[in-house]
Specification:
The protein is globular. The model has no long low-confidence stretch (mean pLDDT about 90). The strands form two sheets. It has a six-stranded mixed β-sheet, with helices on both faces. It has one domain: Rossmann fold, CATH 3.40.50. The chain has helices spanning about 45-50, 70-80, 95-105, 110-125, 140-150, 170-185, 200-205, 220-225, 240-250, and strands at about 5-10, 20-30, 35-40, 60-65, 70, 80-85, 160, 190-195, 205-210, 215-220. Helix 3 packs across helix 4 and helix 4 crosses helix 5. By secondary structure, it is an alpha/beta fold. The relative contact order is 0.16.
Amino acid sequence: MPALIEIDAVTKRYRGADTAALDRVSLTVEPGTIFGLLGPNGAGKTTLISILLGLVRKDGGAVRVAGHDMDRELPAIRRLCGLAPQDLGFYPMLSVEENLRFYGGAGGLAGAALAQRVDFACDTAQLGEHRDKRAERLSGGLKRRLNLALSLLHAPRILVLDEPTVGVDPQSRAFILEVIRRLRQEQGLTVIYTSHYMDEVQQLCDRAAILDQGRVLAQGTLRELLDGVAGSKPARNLEELFLNLTHRRLRD
């Protein structure tokens, strides 16, 4: 099956930084995959997805999404993607429904189409009883659910989730993970999932890449990574795998 996302030797260095944020990163993501980007804070995960969405300009390399070249067809790529950023992306003084309607309208939805997508996003995130509540008064878990709902408004083909469970309670975390599974199963979405919670990636993702200091240490299916056939030695879980890879990088 042809790759939906192709990232080839992408580099990025921020002005004044001693090291590259991304150092010739190459990844492929197939349609319908939940693909995990795993690594500690500062590994380059957010920079990579920011480049994928055209929010940050790459210094080198190539990115293609659904056959569209980023350097020539960025608007087409953006239309395919929905983003739930790590920082909450809504207006705290607006209600849940007002936020959804505002962002949907800003993206070109109107009338019945807007109402339908607001209902879908609200129902998917189970925010129905909170529609009239101001966003600032939501619990931490509900705020994360609203963040996720906003990313669904425009029926994206690719859902990009940057640390979507940061700071939430275990019940809300389990709910968000289950919603992501259902979206892939029922809507056929491809999901890019960044996290430093290795157990989440192990529960959720089909494939993963482990990043550290802007480099890909290993990538493959979870089974390949744990069995040691994707550039690593066998490990019992992703946490052990990451420690093994980090130690190897330091030795090298």
